[in-house]
Specification:
Order of helices and strands: EHHEEHHHHH
Number of helices: 7
Largest sheet: 3 strands, antiparallel
Keywords: 2Fe-2S, DNA-binding, Iron, Iron-sulfur, Metal-binding, Transcription, Transcription regulation
Strand order of the largest sheet: 1-3-2
Protein name: Redox-sensitive transcriptional activator SoxR
Distance between the termini: 64 Å
Strand content: under 5%
Length: about 160
């Protein structure tokens, strides 16, 4: 017997481990596609299983659906993403993930210390952030928030030098 080329929404849900409602949501966001039968039922190509797997992995590591959708624009429609396709997607996400990892480590390591917010209410703040000098570098928790890769300027260089 020849393998089934198209899957119902229930079959995709069962094979992928994703709820039917999530598949409908992904489809509404343009992440996956189906077509309708003469009876108005959704049918998916088998490539949707790998696309759903990529969505789940990417979301698990904190990549937004908007970023996933943008990355999927580079994939050809109607065929299963290949190892090379996955390599291109994951390489494109690597810098953002490295930044998030650095941010999480910095947050974890600094949770019990002055965060550089300018409140001056913790007893260490006058020692670590005397007269709120960190305010010159910008708003927010200056000691815990790393600048994004897109906005790395003078303050980011100073922060990096201070970590060495």
């Amino acid at each position: 017997m020849a393998p089934v080329r198209e899957l119902t929404v229930g079959q995709v849900a069962m094979r992928s481990g994703v709820a039917v409602s999530a598949l409908h949501f992904y489809e509404a966001r343009g992440l996956i596609r189906s077509h309708r039968t003469a009876g108005n039922q959704r049918r998916y190509g088998r490539d949707v299983l790998r696309r759903v797997a990529i969505i789940r992995v990417a979301q698990e590591v904190g990549i937004s659906l908007a970023e996933i959708a943008a990355a999927f624009q580079s994939l050809p429609e109607g065929r299963t993403p290949t190892r090379e396709d996955w390599n291109l997607l994951s390489t494109a996400w690597r810098d953002g993930l490295d930044h998030k990892i650095s941010q999480l480590k910095k947050l974890r390591d600094g949770l019990t210390d002055c965060i550089g917010c300018g409140c001056m209410s913790i007893d260490k703040c006058p020692l670590r952030n005397k007269e709120d000098r960190l305010a010159r570098e910008g708003t927010g928790a200056r000691r815990l928030v790393l600048p994004s890769p897109r906005s790395r300027g003078e303050g980011a260089r100073r922060a990096d030098e201070g970590q060495r």
